[in-house]
Design a protein that fits this description.
The protein is an all-beta fold. It folds into two domains: 3-81, Crystallins (Gamma-B Crystallin, domain 1, Sandwich); 89-169, Sandwich (Gamma-B Crystallin, domain 1), CATH 2.60.20.10. The protein is built from one helix and 15 strands, in the order βββββββββαββββββ. The protein has one helix at residues 112-116, and strands at residues 3-6, 15-18, 34-37, 41-47, 51-57, 60-62, 77-81, 89-95, 99-105, 123-128, 131-136, 140-146, 149-151, 166-169, 181-184. One of its GO terms (molecular function) is structural constituent of eye lens. Belongs to the beta/gamma-crystallin family. This is Crystallin, gamma MX, like 2.
């Protein structure tokens, strides 16, 4: 399973093949205008140390950054997404630190307010599976990728406000039998570790990429 980053569109120019997590791709290429995923699913990040906009990439070819719904041609770190076919469970709260009114979910939710009676989620506990929060109902707006773990404030998943309009399990976006793509858009102030908690690793300055 690997992912190949190309500096040019349509798989041209300098390229680099990666088969493991990489927290800073700067020494391997200057910018990224096309990608090939030969196996597995990956999260590509706009900035080093798994920060910035996030893009979930399934097996397939992406001839330009628009094809993975990119906001620019910067990819500065990447992580392999472990296959998951287990159950899903999440608890959301209307107060920080896992306090206030709580509701447990095991399925997708196209409209948080209709089910939770609150449109703001200040903290959550991902017990099982991978999930994506959306800023607006019906899976629209900025998106935030969440792994299992406790998120005691909305900043822990990279959001600067607690508004969550909808969410769903990542299996609804990634089908192991077909090439698919989804975009997780976030300008994270703190990177999220594999355990789902905010990392204390300092962020390196983002390297600028140009068309």
């Amino acid at each position: 399973m690997s992912i190949i980053f190309y500096e040019g569109r349509s798989f041209q120019g300098r390229h680099w093949e990666c088969n493991t997590d990489c927290m800073d791709t700067f020494r391997h290429f200057n910018c990224c205008n096309s990608i090939r995923v030969s196996g597995g699913h990956w999260v590509a990040y706009e900035k080093p140390f798994y920060m910035g906009y996030q893009y979930i990439l399934g097996p397939g070819e992406y001839p330009d950054y628009h094809s993975w719904m990119g906001f620019n041609n910067c990819v500065r770190s990447c992580q392999m997404l472990s296959p998951y076919r287990g159950s899903y469970k999440m608890r959301i709260y209307n107060r920080p630190d896992l306090m206030g009114n709580m509701m447990e979910f095991m399925d997708d939710c196209p409209n948080v307010y209709e089910r939770f009676r609150y449109s703001d989620i200040y903290s959550c506990n991902i017990l099982e599976g991978f999930w994506i929060f959306y800023e607006h109902p019906n899976y629209k707006g900025r998106q935030y990728f969440l792994r299992p773990g406790e998120y005691r404030a909305c900043g822990d998943w990279g959001c600067h406000n607690p508004m969550v309009g909808s969410f769903r399990r990542i299996r609804t976006l990634i089908n192991p039998t077909m090439a698919d793509i989804s975009t997780c858009c976030t300008r994270a102030s703190t990177p999220i570790t594999s355990a789902g908690r905010a990392s204390t690793t300092a962020s390196a300055p983002a390297a600028w990429c140009h068309l």
